[in-house]
């Protein structure tokens, strides 16, 4: 699957921010658009302009980058953006089911089958 | 409605009780109409999407449609509607305003009452004794378990604290979770007021095998607030049965008052 150049840059930054290499590329465009919608195009562009090897140290040294970086991390893990009052905004069902949170806690997303009747009987792997 | 229509029975509310009654009466030959204040919408995937997209994943999250949140007229309260959040009632049920009612988001747990529950005054000196006994109600429990489709452990529950069972559950029990098993193993021998505490399998209206045209539960973990596949029983099962038998459903139709005539006729 070909990925738009902006989405590729978004994916590279996202891998660095989340610490997860295997992020689903099909969500890069959707999440980039959501990040722009909540943080603005300038903030997203500024973050993506930072060379990936320097990304984490630059964010740590530049508080202005932190809000958009946090939104991107929240998007990949929980498929949500978060407002200043703490309200979560979720996206599509596909995004929710693809949240990295579920594999981190070794659980299936609520609302999506864990696989088969009785899967809950066995210990976590 | 401009034309006059006649029915033998008008059922107010197409929740689980209304739908069960309508199904039975219609099959027995009565002409039945159900009045339901909410919509008849039963699009499970749309409900799941609303749950996913809700900021707060509450029991009502899948059902937040314009129809479902509209207030119902009620002359009894300070407003002209039942205020679920501000009600002074001790029991603040989370109703849902749509066909099927609150069983959309119930958990499906259906343990029977025990014989002593029917004689609380005699057995424990509290509350009141019921005018009926467990033994009188037992055949109806069996019927209800068959209608809803209950999965349970007959041997475990049969005779428990005197509660005899005359028929097995229609389906084998829901398997306990890994956490349940760990808890049971670690609990060991434990007593409260000289009564041994036992970890038992909760009878549930959740399919452990195909039942009544509905699929097996595959553990979506959202019985409450929404079963995405219909493996858990809800009132729409008997609503569909009633409608298939010829009953009518008027949805988005709130009954505000019943008018009793001297001759016994009741209008709404």
Fold blueprint:
The complex is a heterodimer of chains A (about 120) and B (about 270).
Chain A: H1 5-18, H2 28-39, H3 41-48, H4 55-61, H5 66-78, E1 80-82, E2 88-90, H6 93-97, H7 100-104
Antiparallel strand pairs in A: 1-2
Chain B: E1 9-12, H1 16-27, E2 32-35, H2 44-53, H3 120-124, H4 134-148, H5 154-157, H6 178-187, E3 191-192, E4 195-196, H7 236-244, E5 248-250, E6 259-260, E7 266-267
Parallel strand pairs in B: 1-2, 2-5
Antiparallel strand pairs in B: 3-4, 6-7
Which stretches of chain A of 5+ consecutive residues score pLDDT under 50?
none
Characterize the overall form of chain B: globular
Assembly category: heterodimer
Largest interface: A-B, 24 and 24 residues
Query: Roughly how much helix do the residues of chain A carry, as a percent range?
Result: 40-55%
Q: How does the helix and strand content of chain B classify structurally? A: alpha/beta
Task: Give the structural class of chain A.
Answer: mainly alpha
In total, the number of strands of chain A is: 2
Spans of chain B of at least 5 consecutive residues whose pLDDT stays below 50 are none
Query: What is the arithmetic mean of pLDDT of chain A?
Result: 94
Largest sheet of chain B: 3 strands, parallel
Beta percentage of chain B is: 5-15%
Read across the widest sheet of chain B, the strand sequence of neighbours is 1-2-5
**Percent helix among the residues of chain B?**
10-25%
Helix count from the secondary structure assignment of chain A: 7
